[in-house]
C-alpha cells in the first residue's frame, strides 16, 4: 500500500472472479474502470456524479488516467456546509459551480497496487477505517476497492458454504 493522491458506479464492475477461482489480489475484487473526474471540473459536477451513480468516492485523474486526487463524501459534505454557512443555502448551486475540484480534492491518501494481497488490504481497511482505496498499475488508475466490494465477497463466500 502506498501513500498517494476517482470513482465507480454501484453497478459494480467488480470482478468476483470465476466460480471456484480463489480471490487473492486487488485486481480479483476491484471495481474496474471507475468513474473519475478531472481536477478542473466543479464541485457541482462532482455532486451530480455522486447523485447519479449513488457513489461516495470519486478519483480525480489527469488525461492519462494518472491519479492526482481523491474526493470523498465527507470532503464534499464539509465543503457544502462551508458554502451554506458563509453564503447561505440560496447561493449553494452557484458556489458549487464556481468551486474547482482541484481546490477541495485530497492529495494525500492511500492506494494499493493491483497485485497487493486482499487479506492485507482488508486488514488495512479495518485498522484504518477506510471506505475506498484506488487501485493502481504502473501509476495509472485501474480500479477502486471499497468496503462494499468486501461485503459482496463475504456474501459470495457465505452463499457457497
Give a verbal description of the structure:
The chain is an alpha+beta fold. The chain has 7 helices and 7 strands; from the N terminus they run E-H-E-H-E-E-H-H-H-E-H-E-E-H. It has helices at residues 26-29, 43-53, 73-87, 92-98, 101-104, 118-128, 147-160; strands at 2-4, 31-32, 57-61, 67-72, 109-113, 132-137, 140-146. The strands form 2 sheets. The protein has a 5-stranded mixed beta sheet. Strands 3-4 form a two-stranded antiparallel ribbon. Helix 6 links the parallel strand 5 and strand 6. The two termini are 31 Å apart. The model is unreliable at 2-19 (pLDDT under 50).
Main sheet properties = 5 strands, mixed
Mean pLDDT: 86
> If helices are DSSP runs of H or I spanning 4 or more residues, what is the number of helices?
7
Shape: elongated
Radius of gyration: 17 Å
What is this structure's SSE topology?
Elements lengths: L1 E3 L21 H4 L1 E2 L10 H11 L3 E5 L5 E6 H15 L4 H7 L2 H4 L4 E5 L4 H11 L3 E6 L2 E7 H14 L1
Gist of the model:
The chain is an alpha+beta fold and 161 residues long. The protein is built from seven helices and seven strands; from the N terminus they run βαβαββαααβαββα. The protein has a five-stranded mixed sheet with strand order 1-5-6-7-2. The chain has a two-stranded antiparallel ribbon with strand order 3-4.
